[in-house]
Amino acid sequence: MYRVDLNSDLGESFGRYTLGSDDQIIPLITSANVACGFHASDPVVMKKTIEMAREAGIHVGAHPGYPDLMGFGRRNMTISPAEAKAYTLYQIGALDAFCKAAGLEMQHVKPHGAFYNMAAKDYKLAHGICEAIAEYNPKLILMALSGSEMIRAAEDCGLRAASEVFADRAYEEDGTLVNRAKEGAMITDEDEAIARVVRMIKEKKVTAITGKDIPLKADSICVHGDGAKALAFVAKIRETLTKEGIEICPLAQML
Q: What is the pTM of this model?
């Protein structure tokens, strides 16, 4: 039997600025990665997002990033593993306060943006992130790029690790995501993106931007909720996965 989680990065509005269609995306996914105030979000948005997730019955995870509101956490920063650990611990704790107040148990942690991409390649940085998670709550699942250093660090820290794949992003031959600034980084054709997802789940392969097939593992699919066609795209992914006999369920029921 094929099983997969559908996740989306949510709660990324800030003050008067609204980003994404969280209220519409939430009913279509199984796991929400909620921004924790460093790259996006604020306490009011965090609280509202957690409450929406609770009402929809979906699982919640922390989405910690670099302290970079202006750059939306997508700019690389030079930090030590100790700083990575502290940043992660701080943000997990902040979101978990809202989870506890709402009567929810946090399911996972997924780093955001540049934090995610840099830790995917840098074991020491990844280990700092995983140490924070393990010390805070060893029952939490780390959600990270398939085949990355974060997956290795999670296993070394005794954490469960969920391998994540992306429906709308192109891959390099080493399994990392193609930089957004590079042509072809985003998969804009919906049918192509969905066909890639089905292949990633069933065959554990994806075609890199070079044309070469590379191996990966797909425990969870990231579907971005801030695009113009995001809602229709997520709905179409769900419909196709069901037709393909792929069960959609949260990580907590898989790992």
A: 0.96
